[in-house]
Amino acid sequence: MTHWWQAPTRPLDRDAERAALARQDALTKPRGALGRLEALAVRLAAMQGRERPRLEALRIVVFAGDHGVVAEGVSAYPQAVTGEMLRNFVRGGAAISVLARTLDAQLEVIDLGTAVPLEPLAGVLHLGLGAGTANFLAGPALDPEQLAAALDAGRAAVARALADGAQVFIGGEMGIGNTTAASALACALLQRPASDLVGPGTGLDAQGVAHKAAVIERALARHRSAETPLERLRCLGGFEIAALTGAYLACAQAGLPALVDGFICSVAALCARHLNPGCGDWLLYAHRGAEPGHGLVLAALEAEPLLELGLRLGEGSGAALAVPLLRLACALHGGMATFAEAAVSDRAP
């Protein structure tokens, strides 16, 4: 059986890439003087299929869901916080809410399934996949229907972003316990022990980190028979991690650049790459966060993040912070004069 996420991804526009490279070579500056901003502009040109890319319309989607493994005492915060933060997002008080306003970005909030029941919230899309995932020490975190629905939720979010004219997609996440789920999934995908990836998440002390690592090792042992990326996602992932995975795959198939946020989003990107390697062409990596496992995941993705600010917030906040860099890369690439236009002498042949 072939699933939608296995369909081919859109190829980059190599003609636009060559034209952008030629333009960079002609701008009034020494070759390479703008460092990675030059390569970033060229990459966006190949993604957008135009010599001079633009980044005006931005869609940020925050996927939220709870995790059954929180019952094992792996988080410093109660699960009620997930729903409380959903209210904070739509009231405008969260970091990502402020960043979205500042960047003039469209913000969408999706409740995939919280442990504590919520009233209908204006501005939140409630999908109700379950009261959080199951505790993966007792069985798979998601059943097959929940996994398919979460992946589809990511694809549908991308379709809405495209319909609204988005030029770049940012996925964010919210879910108490999701660094545990992401770490477990990363361990399974990378075949690394929990001690290599586990960190404090939202604020565990050293004893808490050791306990979280032990819980993950037990989960890895329990789900050792999950050999495919899809089964590892089902057994160890979360609603929001699966939705992000689906979103990144859908972005690549539709030709929409995706700016990947921190550790949890990067694990979803890693899973997406395992499911369909072609999606890697459409993923840009915003930052290297403080969670210890993030560097290992980025290395496996051969990713060069744009920022390193010690962030560990999530929500898509690190990706939003990188947007001005992308916009400035496009502005410099499109707005600078060439040597010929400015009547400035080029270097000697």
TrEMBL record:
Catalysed reactions, semicolon-separated: 5,6-dimethylbenzimidazole + nicotinate beta-D-ribonucleotide = alpha-ribazole 5'-phosphate + nicotinate + H(+)
Gene3D superfamilies documented for this protein: 1.10.1610.10, 3.40.50.10210
Pathway: Nucleoside biosynthesis; alpha-ribazole biosynthesis; alpha-ribazole from 5,6-dimethylbenzimidazole: step 1/2
EC number: 2.4.2.21
NCBIfam families registered for this protein in UniProt: cobT_DBIPRT, PRK00105.1
HAMAP family (UniProt xref): CobT (MF_00230)
Name of the protein in its database record: Nicotinate-nucleotide--dimethylbenzimidazole phosphoribosyltransferase
Source organism of the structure: Pseudomonas mangiferae
